[in-house]
């Protein structure tokens, strides 16, 4: 394993480069996945059957909170990767921990939001609109949940093994994933919630 | 006992009971055989845990051939049922099940793995790489595909086969009209193997973009590798659509959501659209690697460079883009209106242009070449005229106004079989024969191979040409019987004869494999066909590290030019080679996927949760483990190279 000194650690070996490229391609596939969900959402948006419409169930407060929390977590993980590049393991771990905590808060709010919808009579089985709404949000939420566990595993490895080409590579890829979820959320915020409330 | 009733077959018949007995006996025979010959350890160490792209390729190949026979038996039963009017061999329910599983098995579990088998074996060798970018992921891809295929196949004896067609259109595929668990199998088994295919796509894009031998620029890549690159890009962009569609279909069936229902705001046409947004690119996922195989075989046996290399690449890129813009032509009659239909008519007809360019390029490659008619070449020569007939009828179908006449008739069935059989099946058989010596170190018998090729070539024409006529006369597809007064009898009888010819051809191929394994000479050169690309520059069969010294490339057809100009492909000297370690986790994780899928099919939630924990446990294990692979020493490489008949450097 030859280590390239002029590159950041996460790019320093050939396998690391491959991993990062592979993950970008995977994000390409994820974009298609969410694009399909969005396209289906736009088609089913007004097909509410006997159930409520978006305007009737969306409430701005939890949505704004979720948005702020997730955007902030994207910022903190950026700081975490910056700290990693400077070799400051403790700072990095702290930023990653903050990121994951914000992720937990986001998830808690989303679960609250879902129970609220079910209360309002908008469950998964109510109509075409609620099915696709909860599936789109749920797919994003499931990604965040997966990310929480993934992040914890990465923090454990950093604690045990320090900043090696391997652990930094994993952390960097995780940060790509987290930023991607943030981007998806921006689309959900704009085209599901704002569009629905207008 | 109520618990077990759900596993019963809803429409049993003696044939299904016989199949159950046969499956149980085969399983017992395999277990006893492995135990008696003490092969469990061998099987686990050398195959189930392997991450070697060559062995994974061979496992894909074996699965594909097995599935070819499963799908082939379905086909023969269909043709037998239709051979005479008012036949009672199968009832309508069995006929529905058989045409559904025939389509699914042939597309997902025969054609796809056959293509991925050749890509796995050949692409890393053609670009001079040691393995794919992510060997462990590659093993996971295979096992997910395999478990998905097995899950789909047990539907036959546990719970009932899917019966809503291979396209599974809603609302027919919904709970109301498809009450058995068959369609659950469809949704979940394809989902599992589809995840495997998506990961193959990611793996091969990274491999081809990053792991080419020094000097091999993109425009110096062999054409098969080019086709693999484009195909995998299509896979990565098309398969997520199928993932979502299948997930929605699963939720509609298991959790009573309203994606594709006809009430409460559901939209049944959404399924048709999503299915074909994936489905049409899928057609090109199948055909482009086949084009790649022909682009290797035809120049080799014409003794000429491939004509129009750049236009070959350009036409593949154009095909890949257009493939995403034509999906509506699968349902012109389902009420889009004239404007939408016209647009999709035009985009569909446009695909004929790059495809035509490729046909002419192959013809110009043949022109004035020193043609050697070997088995792979024979398949290629049969492909060109038959595929062109299939393709031209495709342009007829593309005209939306005329399509109202052809839609859902046997005319359509004839069309897509006449593109997909010469396109994919001939290409895979050509590729199999062509690369066989590289895989196993001996050649397949040429005489038997040519017999099979002629039988399959003529059989294809005999089986499918009559359907053009009966289709235009009004015979609908998926109709399980017809009366004598329709006059379809004669055409269907001819088609049945063709199907028998095809079956005999495939049996000869299997006999050929047996015969050649037993009698063929093992004393063959590494380059028995006098071929052109890098895979022929290493030994046959290929050592685990592929190339002792990484080749250095300066031109297209690197190996050909090296032979002609006495150049030096291998400039370096032996160095330690880093190899990935074997792992049992991909197999175990996929086995959990199998259990998870089975539990979902029958709504056994506790089992589903347990197996899901197993899946995530495997992922956690992968995250935490440290696996740096191992190194092969210079001495070991020297020894192996000498044993294989002299160093290649």
Automatic annotation (TrEMBL), chain A:
Spans traversing the lipid bilayer: 21-43, 63-82, 94-112, 132-155, 176-194
Matches recorded under CDD domains: Ubiquinol_oxidase_III
EC top class, as a word: oxidoreductase
Catalysed reactions, as listed in the record: 2 a quinol + O2 = 2 a quinone + 2 H2O
Residue ranges of domain Heme-copper oxidase subunit III family profile in the record: 1-197
Matches recorded under InterPro entries: Cyt_c/ubiquinol_Oxase_su3, Cyt_c_oxidase-like_su3, Cyt_c_oxidase_su3-like_sf, Cyt_c_oxidase_su3_a-hlx, QoxC, Ubiquinol_oxase_su3_dom
Keyword Cell membrane applies: yes
Subcellular localization: Cell membrane
One Pfam family recorded for the sequence: COX3
Enzyme Commission number: 1.10.3.-
Chief place of localization: membrane
Record key words, sorted: Cell membrane, Membrane, Oxidoreductase, Transmembrane, Transmembrane helix
Topology class, membrane: Multi-pass membrane protein
Function description: Catalyzes quinol oxidation with the concomitant reduction of oxygen to water.
Family: Belongs to the cytochrome c oxidase subunit 3 family.
NCBIfam families in UniProt: QoxC
Name of the protein in question: Quinol oxidase subunit 3
Organism name: Salinibacillus aidingensis
UniProtKB/TrEMBL annotation, chain B:
UniProt catalytic activity: 2 a quinol + O2 = 2 a quinone + 2 H2O
One Pfam short name: COX1
Compartments, as annotated in UniProt: Cell membrane
Origin: domain of life: Bacteria
Cofactor(s) this protein cannot do without: ferriheme a; Cu cation
Membrane-spanning segments: 15-37, 58-78, 98-119, 140-159, 185-209, 229-249, 269-291, 312-332, 338-357, 378-402, 414-436, 448-469, 489-514, 587-616
Domain Cytochrome oxidase subunit I profile: 38-554
EC number(s) per entry: 1.10.3.-
Keywords: Cell membrane, Copper, Electron transport, Heme, Hydrogen ion transport, Ion transport, Iron, Membrane, Metal-binding, Oxidoreductase, Respiratory chain, Transmembrane, Transmembrane helix, Transport
Name of the featured protein: Quinol oxidase subunit 1
Lineage: Bacteria, Bacillati, Bacillota, Bacilli, Bacillales
